[in-house]
Specification:
- It contains 18 helices and 12 strands.
- The chain is of the alpha/beta class.
- The chain has 3 domains: about 110 residues, Beta-Lactamase (2-Layer Sandwich), CATH 3.30.450.20; about 170 residues, 3-Layer(aba) Sandwich (Rossmann fold); about 50 residues.
- The strands form 3 sheets. Strands 2-1-5-4-3 form a 5-stranded antiparallel sheet. It has a 5-stranded parallel sheet with strand order 7-10-11-6-12.
- It is elongated and about 110 Å long.
Length: about 450
């Protein structure tokens, strides 16, 4: 009986050692140390089974980015659902990087604790390399299609972006005013440029105005221009932004930052009544296409008194919403590839490491495309994918007390504003006077604290 058992054990060992891969058991000691490894370790990794069993850092042969994804997958298995599958890179004894596929089952104690993994590793380097090359070629092909359609700066193949392209194409064939909404970093200016470039005004000026960057006391002179001697420092005539956009497109970014008194003057000019440069008496008229953008909700701007209702109806002829990056996951790798090519100063486009693809796709991207661009630019500098959430978590403890103080101050300010609004029956102007705020500051604070 003993002889038969020994023969069976030898047969099993022979079969396991002859498999074209590595059969193993790894114990859950924090390092997943090998308890058993088959002879397949020699062909796959260049290590004898005894070397792997004596080593305590098998997982250290795996790049950090891949290890993070592996830990995530293993954290999801359970006694009732113990099977798992991993795909990752591993460094062999000669220093070569291989792609491997690991399939296995978690071994649990009677108390339900994960004590070991029984698994099988197989080399998939050739298959994975072909898959990556095919994906990158597909990305390049789709990018070239976008270029041929005159939308080369707007990258994406997702359904929501196809809808954006369709609306841009339709809008470009008209002279209607376009209101582009969307979070910061979604590409509102790129969409505006695409509309201009596809229109019959493409050879005329495209004038960009960042309304939030112009001091309030300079808005009128910037928009309408001035005559020499109109005020101290006006040493020569200067045409304004409206004159500069003649025949082309005027793009007002952050249109909600324009003060109400300036909105009234701007509306008159847009409605054809013209404008008068400072220090002049002659009314000027400038014909142009108007496109505006804001990262705020237009209805909220009107509801809080930050935008005139008549201006709202004037600019909101056609509304184009730029989707946040978290709604267009299919575009992330295409965008990453675009930025790799754009920022690389090498002859060959660098490759993203290991499981960077899944890391990028699963991230929430609060900063949208602009944040992705910065992440790729930083990767080309430090050779590491570093997301904002990682940076924040490292600094959180250090700034905890500062955040607490800031939060208390904000709560006090919010309550003071709320009290003033109630005292004045929600009359914004009177409440602002009570608090010695300007009306514009009061409106901004109400938006900040979501007071209606």
């Amino acid at each position: 009986m003993k002889k038969s058992t020994t023969q069976n054990q030898n047969l099993i060992k022979s079969v396991v050692d002859n498999l074209p891969g590595l059969v193993f058991r790894a114990v859950n000691d924090g390092q997943w140390t090998f308890k058993f490894a088959s002879r397949g370790a020699v062909a796959l990794l260049g290590y004898a089974p005894e070397e792997l069993v004596s080593a305590t850092a098998f997982r250290h042969m795996i790049p950090n980015e891949d290890q993070e994804e592996n830990r995530r997958v293993l954290s999801q298995i359970s006694k009732d659902n113990p099977q798992y599958e991993l795909v990752y890179r591993i460094r062999t004894a000669p220093g070569k990087i291989k792609w491997v596929k690991e399939e296995g089952t978690g071994v649990y104690s009677a108390a339900g604790e994960l004590v070991a993994l029984d698994g099988f590793l197989v080399d998939i380097t050739e298959q994975k390399t072909a898959e990556i090359e095919l994906r990158e070629e597909n990305i390049r092909l789709k990018s070239s299609i976008r270029n041929r359609h005159g939308l080369d700066k707007l990258i994406g193949k997702s359904l929501v972006m196809k809808e954006v392209y369709e609306l841009i194409s339709k809008a470009a064939g008209t002279n209607a005013t376009i209101a582009i909404t969307g979070e910061s970093g979604t590409g509102k200016e790129l969409a505006a440029r695409a509309i201009h470039n596809l229109s019959n005004r493409s050879k005329m000026p495209f004038v960009v105005v960042n309304c939030s960057a112009i001091p309030e006391n300079l808005l009128e002179s910037e928009f309408f221009g001035y005559r020499k001697g109109a005020f101290s420092g006006a040493l020569a005539d200067r045409k304004g932004l409206m004159a500069a956009a003649r025949g082309g497109t005027l793009f007002l970014d952050e249109v909600g930052e324009i003060p109400l008194h300036m909105q009234a003057k701007l509306l008159r000019a847009l409605d054809g009544d013209g404008y008068t440069p400072i220090g002049d008496t002659k009314v000027r008229v400038s014909e142009f296409r108007l496109i505006v953008a804001t990262n705020q909700d237009l209805d909220d701007l009107v509801a809080t008194g930050q935008m005139r209702e008549d201006l709202y109806y004037r600019i909101n002829t056609v509304c184009l919403r730029m989707p946040p990056l978290r709604e267009r996951k299919d575009d992330i790798l295409m965008l990453a590839d675009y930025f790799l090519k754009k920022f690389s100063d090498l002859g060959v486009t660098p490759k993203l490491p290991g499981n960077a693809h899944s890391t990028l796709i699963n991230y929430s991207w609060p900063g949208n495309v602009r944040e992705l661009q910065n992440v790729i630019s930083r990767f080309l500098t430090i050779n590491k994918i570093e997301l904002a959430s990682n940076v924040v978590s490292r600094k959180k403890a250090k700034k905890k007390s500062q955040f607490g103080l800031a939060e208390n101050i904000e709560n006090m300010e919010k309550q003071a504003i709320l009290d003033a609004l109630k005292r004045n029956h929600w009359h914004i102007g009177k409440a602002a006077v009570d608090l010695r705020f300007s009306r514009r500051t009061m409106q901004r604070r109400m938006i900040k604290y979501k007071l209606r």
